[in-house]
Design goal:
The complex is a heterodimer of chains A (about 60) and B (about 300).
Chain A (H helix, E strand, L loop, with lengths): L1 E4 L4 E4 L4 E2 H8 L6 E5 L2 E3 L4 E2 L4 E6 L5
Parallel strand pairs in A: 1-7
Antiparallel strand pairs in A: 1-2, 3-6, 4-5, 4-7
Chain B lengths: L11 E2 L2 E2 L1 H18 L9 E5 L3 H12 L4 E7 L6 H14 L4 E5 H5 L3 H5 L6 H16 L5 E3 L4 H14 L2 H4 L14 E3 L7 H10 L16 H15 L3 H16 L10 E2 L6 E2 L5 H19 L1
Parallel strand pairs in B: 3-4, 3-6, 4-5, 6-7
Antiparallel strand pairs in B: 1-2, 8-9
Helix pairs in contact in B: 1-9, 2-9, 7-10, 7-11
The chains are: A mainly beta (about 60), B alpha/beta (about 300).
Chain lengths: ~60, ~300
């Protein structure tokens, strides 16, 4: 799975299968602070992710 | 997760809605806020304070879709590596949607950028920026009935807590979705008062409004950033925390409105003619200190 974390501009490739919420827990990212985009579509945290997915975690926090 | 209003797949869990119903939710919540607090109507001249970030571009977009006519006011503080990017996004959006935007800068107005001003160590970045920004917003929105800002529920819950924690009682009583109009100040309104930052980013993402992630380099160490992080942790632990803070504040404000007196008496700054609590306004005091310090630094080179 390819993961892009917008806030830190990190790109990670990792093996993962489970819900988006479980992925966030593993990455220690607060659901309140991101939007989950799977293969270009907004999804909710209960969505099951697979190894072939491209996941972007968009940062909600911005500005000053 | 299914949309709570139809059988489509939800794209957001709070509220649990599909793209179509979420779009309606944003428009309806904004319109309800405008109506509930009598922020403005279709005849009001509305100046939108725009930074080019997601909140202000979403506000321009939502107000236009609701049938309000707006103009933008952009303030360039002069923060290299930050403001020029949101300015690009603003130009893209306003150009594509024929929205007139007035642009003013700290450099043109005061003779220095915020980056330069901070080399003087006269005050904290947010204090200087806030003082100059507030003055310019008020000055350049004077010909409008209201100035609308993209402040959202997260911003407002943070502000309530910050003022409580700092003991700013005078300011604390003046928070909320609007300020009263006065001869010196343009009425300020916040149509996104009940929308979260996350809902607004969801809206701009769905509407394909281009805004890039950017955080003010000076804000990351601010007290507000610390309060924001704590509130996000509390919200994750107990959903509804931010909304409860806002609702409790509004209820408190309503109950105390008749007994609360504003203690701040205003005069006019003898130098710039803008409203002030003293004979010289804070912006003029800061401006003088910064210009003198910068001139001294320059002569030492």
């Amino acid at each position: 799975m390819n993961i892009f974390i917008e806030k830190t501009q990190e790109r990670i490739t990792k093996t993962f299968s489970g819900s988006a919420q479980e992925l966030l827990k593993e990455l220690a990212i607060n659901l309140e602070e991101i939007l989950i985009v799977r293969n270009g579509e907004l999804v909710t945290e209960d969505v099951l992710l697979s190894d072939t997915d491209d996941v972007a975690l968009l940062s909600v926090v911005s500005g000053g | 997760m299914k949309c709570e209003q139809c059988t489509a797949t939800a794209i957001i869990s709070n509220p649990c809605l599909c793209a179509q119903h979420f779009d309606k939710f944003i428009l309806q919540t904004t319109q309800d806020t405008i109506a509930r607090f009598s922020l403005f109507d279709k005849h009001t001249t509305i100046c939108v304070a725009v930074s080019g970030g997601k909140d202000s571009l979403a506000l321009l977009d939502v107000l236009t879709r609701l049938g309000y006519v707006t103009k933008g006011l952009f303030i360039d503080e002069g923060i290299l590596g930050y403001r020029e990017y949101s300015r690009e996004d603003l130009d893209t959006y306003s150009g594509a949607n024929n929205i007139f935007v007035t642009k003013v800068s700290f450099q043109e107005s005061y003779g220095f950028t915020l980056d330069a001003a901070l080399q003087t160590n006269i005050s904290h970045a947010c204090t200087l920026c806030g003082t100059f920004r507030r003055q310019l917003l008020n000055k350049y929105s004077r010909s409008f009935d209201v100035i609308a800002t993209g402040h959202n529920l997260d911003d407002e819950a943070q502000t309530v807590l910050i003022n409580l924690a700092r003991g700013n009682t005078d300011l604390f009583f003046r928070l909320g979705p609007k300020t009263k109009a006065s001869p010196h100040f343009t009425k300020r309104v916040k149509p996104f008062y009940f929308l979260t930052e996350k809902q607004i980013l969801t809206y701009t993402t769905l509407r394909k409004i281009k805004t890039q992630f950017s955080e003010c380099p000076y804000a990351t160490t601010s007290y507000r950033a610390a309060v924001r992080d704590v509130l996000n942790k509390l919200e994750a632990k107990q959903p509804g925390t931010k909304r409860n803070i806002i609702n409790t504040y509004l209820s408190f404000q309503e109950q105390t409105q008749s007994t609360t007196k504003t203690t701040t008496l205003l005069t006019i700054c003898s130098r710039c003619g803008e409203p002030s609590q003293e004979s010289l306004c804070k912006a003029c005091i800061f401006q003088e200190q910064i210009l003198i310090t910068l001139a001294k630094k320059s002569s030492l080179k």
